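Lecture 7 notes: from sequence to structure.
We start with the chain below.
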Amino acid sequence: MRRVSAICNGTVIDHIPSGRAVQVMRMLHIDGSQSNPISLVMNVPSGKVGRKDVLKIEDRELSQEELDRLALVAPSASIAIIRNYGVAEKRKIELGDELIDIARCSFFNCITQSTNEPLPHKLRVISSEPLEIRCAYCGMSQSVDQIVESLV
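Predicted structure tokens for the same chain:
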């Protein structure tokens, strides 16, 4: 049974962990005020992962920077670029070893919080399973929620 209609052009993000689609939308700066239609399906059955969320964004293709952000919240998601109602390309998301200028350190006393030090925001991925991320400068651990709130 089809729950959401096909899109002509845009991006489909499939296999988002159940309940994380709203975080994905925040990370991609999607708040519904844009002119392009957005379809969101949450907590639907999946043969691969049990339950999943799906997000369809019409007339927008995700950039590599957006894919890097997405890897924090939905590292196993699959991306399909749709053109003329067909899948033009599929992209994989990979969480790199470092996240540069993706999010800010949440520690109030970190050197990156200073306006006198124009340093790039660097977070290091210590472990992907379970996800552990630390600031490259002060070493403070960062939660996914903190990262979502501190996007650059």
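Points to note: The two ends are 39 Å apart (CA to CA). Residues 19 and 134 are 24 Å apart (CA to CA).
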